[in-house]
Amino acid sequence: MVYWNLPKVAVGGMYMNNTVMDLSILNLAIAYVFVLVLLVIFKARGIRREKMILIATTRMTIQLTLMGFVLLYVFKHPSWWLTLSMLAIMLGFAVYNALKRVKYSMSKELKRLVALSMIIGYLVTAVVFMLLVLQVEPWFNPQYFIPISGMIIGNSMTGIALGANRLCANMRDHRERIENSLMLGATCKVATFDEVNDAFDSAILPTMNNMMTMGIVSLPGMMTGQMLSGTFPLTAIKYQIGIMLAILGCTAITVVIFVTLGYKTFFTSSAALK
Predict the structure, then answer these.
(1) How many whole angstroms separate alpha carbon 266 and alpha carbon 96?
(2) Where in the chain are the domains?
């Protein structure tokens, strides 16, 4: 175990110990025992998930290691085009994974709307949070832009995947009710009002539940990471509150754009269900 001894910092009469522990490869390897425990449990219960566990663990390890080397280069050579390239790659993979998580068949229009909603939701949130709340200088500073964007994009990806699944399921399961409403003279918007609201609610609910238990049941990763690196707890908490509000805002904007426009893709130009 290697320790990086940084100077102690006095904050409000308290001295924060800025010693950072650098995990050795051997120490990190010990943590993989938890994967073995999971494999044993699945094997004992006859659940055939061994291959998925091994693939997920291997991918996680390789992807994070590669990302570490990429970030080392980006942080050493900060530039606006490198930061924007990283963000474009992150958004591209997020859209791809969001589409993969949807269990139902989607039209090309709906798939394009997923991408458009995620891009708009992120851009609006990034402008407000990075430039107005954090006031990052220079604006493309990768130390802030990349990790915070990763958290925002990752959560909005989960939200829109949940919303898309619920919207597609509702449009399929409630087809008869929607058609009856249309025959009685309702517009497409009115006929699908409950289905759209339900899709939005199901997408936002996990983030809200996470916020309600935060600080009591769980300590978020960003805040924990900052405190482990020696950041004063109250400073870490302020950052965490800000990022959670940004995540909530981005998820809300992304999903509301998707469901508000998405239901229209299920209808023909003559207002009949496809």
Answers:
(1) 21
(2) 78-274
